[in-house]
Amino acid sequence: MSSYLFQQLLNGIQLGTIYALIALGYTMVYGIVKLINFAHADIFMVGAYVAFFLVAYLSGTSGSVPVQLCVWPSVVLGYLALGSLSEGTPFAKSFFGSFDRRRQSAPTGWSRAAISFAKSVAQMLLIMLLAGVFSPILYLFTRTFFKPPLNLFSIPVIIVYVMGVCALLGIAMEKIAYRPLRHKPRISALITAMGVSFFLENFCSLDIVFGNKYQAFPTLVQKHDVIRFAGSGVAISNIFIINMSVLACMLFLLWIIVEKTLIGKQMRAVAFDHTTASLMGIDVDKTISITFMIGPALAGVSGILYAMNYGILQSPFLGFYPGLKAFIAAVLGGIGSLPGAVLGAFLMGATEVFANSIDSNLGFAAAFVVLIVILLIKPTGILGKKEIDKV
User: Fold this and answer.
1) In 10 A of CB 345, how many CB atoms?
2) Would you call 312 helix, strand, or coil by DSSP?
3) Three-state SS at 207
4) How far apart (Å, rounded) are the C-alpha atoms in residues 195 and 204?
5) Cα torsion at 238, 241, 247, 250 (round to 10°)?
6) Spatial CA neighbour of 127 closest among 204, 62, 73, 189
7) DSSP states of 167-186 as a string?
8) CA 36, 15, 346: angle at the middle one, nearest 5?
9) Which residues pair with 228 in a beta bridge?
10) Where are the beta strands (DSSP E) in the chain?
């Protein structure tokens, strides 16, 4: 019995690594802008599917270069191209970025909101136009020059690729959807986050993007037991070691960024007080954009681990349940606390695995039971801190 419980604990920790990387993005964004980014779970889904098409191409199962590998990078290249133009041409500035500072001091009203929305739509159309130019070029380049072998050393390449796509998608999301509402009531940003989530889910369901069907993830690493405890039936697989290694690397890089770099200090200052940080010379908009880059990048890595662990990508709505459980983990650990998000994710993973071992229908309910119990005892979460609101 003890060996069975220990094996289930290992399985829960393995699942917790996936939830932890998603929960870190939730808690980072909330800590900086006090926003629950519901679209964060859909970026997890984008990371899983981008990894699927990339691995399928590298393994040779897709035959030729999947169009999807060119669509998302082309959108990102279009965004970057438009961003570079906005720094140098007055026309592009009217559509991209430069009006943001003026908007903060401009009068509010429905007309201002309509103008901002029209500019965002025009910006999106320009990005799509540029993406249509980049897609054929990127397709030919990839088909001609990019065909490395698929092996264990391909994992870092896949991780970097997926992180790049998800990070820039997060920046674009923040720039287009959230920044215009920075100084509006929080409920407006919350509803917009839900809208962005629905848009990504339905956009990704298009056949030219991901398609609304089950996909079997190609075998990236053949699973086998690395350590087996004799006489107990407990085993540690290479997948478990890969999960823990990837999580450890991501946490170490995140710790370096947050604690040892200038942008990390700026992020902590902005999380403490936006107004004071701006008075101290910190570019608040840039700091928030970088936060929206780091969080989605971690969610993309989580998507890779999920696809590698479970092998089946259910649909473009793949991110809903993992994202919801990761959000519970972030609240459980203390929303806004990075160590709390990781601790909550491991607790969530272990709870779900143990509950599912009793009955497969108990896993989701058990997560909420644990959340309610913890919040009744400690309303701020396990490692959360009380906030004092000045009046």
Assistant:
1) 30
2) strand
3) coil
4) 14
5) -80
6) 73
7) HHHHHHHIIIIIGGGTTS-H
8) 65
9) 235
10) 215-216, 225-228, 235-237, 312-313
- What is the chain's length? 391
How far is residue 272's CA from residue 180's CA, in Å, rounded to a whole number? Answer: 21
Count CA atoms within 13 Å of residue 131 on its CB side: 17
- The pLDDT tens digits of the residues spanning 110-132 come to 666 666 667 666 766 777 777 77
Mention every residue, 6+ apart, whose C-beta is less than 8 A from residue 368.
328
| Alpha carbon distances (Å) from 69 to 66, 164, 201, 319 | 6, 13, 18, 20
What Å distances lie between residue 114 and 100, 119, 209, 369, CA to CA?
Answer: 14, 9, 30, 43
Q: For residue range 47-102, what is the model confidence (pLDDT) as tens digits?
A: 998 888 888 877 776 655 666 667 667 776 776 676 666 554 444 444 444 444 44
Q: Which residues does 252 contact at the CB level (< 8 Å), separation at least 6?
A: none
> Would you state the structure tokens that stand for residue 216, as one six-digit string?
């079997």
Query: Is the Cα dihedral 248, 253, 259, 263 positive or negative?
Result: negative
* Buried b / exposed e along 367-384 (16+ C-beta atoms within 10 A): beebbeebeeeeebbbbb
The mean of the pLDDT values for the chain is 80
Are the C-beta atoms of residues 315 and 38 closer than 8 Å to each other? no
Instruction: Say if CB 309 and CB 18 are below 8 A apart.
Output: yes
CA 271, CA 31: separation in Å to the nearest integer? 6
Residue with tokens 């996936």: 18
Q: Which residues contact 4 (CB under 8 A, 6 or more apart)?
A: 233
- Full-model pTM: 0.82
* CATH 3.40.190 for the 2-60+150-377 domain, yes or no: no
d(CA 353, CA 355): 5
Six token digits for residue 141: 């380049």
Indicate the DSSP class of residue 78: H
- Of 119, 137, 117, nearest to 127 by C-alpha is 119
Contact at 8 Å (CB) between 295 and 23? Answer: no
- 45, 203 in Cβ contact below 8 A? no
Q: Which two tokens stand for residue 122?
A: 């025009």
Q: Where are the beta strands (DSSP E) in 21-84?
A: none
